[in-house]
Amino acid sequence: MKISVFIFFLGLFMSGFAQVDRDQLSLEISKAEAANLEKLKPYLWRRETVVTVDGQVKTNALSEMNFDETGKLSVKNLEAKSTDKDKRGLRGRIQDNAKEDAMEYVEKALKMAISYTYLSKGQLIDFFSKAEITESNGLIQAVAKDVLVKGDVVTFSIDPKTKLFVHKTFSSKLGEDDISADIEYGRLSGGESHATKTVLNLPAK
Q: What's the confidence (pLDDT) of residue 6?
């Protein structure tokens, strides 16, 4: 009986502690992210993008990114290479039209990926208010649903010392299509964190 009572009160204590820790963690991470983005403003950095369709690599792209004078994130496409072989004649023209449509779709998907990469302070606080938080391989692991789109699932891996992002994944909806992405982060010379590579997984159209 005594053991049961002890476990009951220990459970209450741990539940309350976890809630306080969750709130504190949310504030620390949102503060670290805001400071990091402020430090990024003078820089230009590059992001590699790999687009896969049903698991097959279709496009490799390189972009240059920075924050403009208004604080808005700017993306400049430097190069993009398709793995599809070019066709000639009528088939080639059909292929070109299909490529244009596909690139518009990819651009929409990339905009969605950026929205998950750079969440606002309010979005971060909302994320952590409903996230399941654990520790994995020395990193803080946080998973939440219904973050930006109903039914989406977002996972953060966070450095416990700096409170900066190391890796993100998300699965979401673009229209009626299921899409997902893996976002890797790197550091600049001053320690500033930024997304260095995005692997975007799209369905066949």
A: 42
